[in-house]
Design brief:
single chain, mainly alpha
Length: 109
């Protein structure tokens, strides 16, 4: 008789556990977590992609630095022009000292 009680209790616990899992799953389906949307990413690259656009942008960066296109630039590949354009763009970028003269000083000075 003790064995029957243990078996009955195990069966009742199993059924109750199954019912609890079913109830929790059905409640969770009805209450889906809210969906958040992140900031939209720009789809267009800021670096020109075609050879003509790269040459135009590179020329503008060189003019800003007071330079001209180097001799024989026509034989450069598009990737080489892109590399030189990006390099000139970084060279022309303002430094922190140019933007805010006091930005480079140390706090304890």
């Amino acid at each position: 008789m003790t064995r029957r009680r243990v078996s009955a209790l195990a069966l009742v616990a199993f059924v109750a556990g199954g019912a609890l899992v079913f109830a929790a799953a059905s409640v969770q389906k009805g209450e889906a977590p809210p969906v958040t949307a992140g900031a939209a990413r720009p789809t267009d690259s800021q670096v020109p992609t075609t050879r003509a656009e790269l040459v135009e942008a590179w020329t503008a960066e060189l003019e800003q630095a007071g330079k001209e296109l180097p001799e024989g630039w026509e034989v450069l590949t598009t990737d080489e022009i892109r590399g030189r354009y990006l390099h000139q763009r970084m060279v022309n970028a303002p430094r922190a000292e140019d933007i805010d003269p006091g930005m480079g000083r140390r706090v304890d000075e």
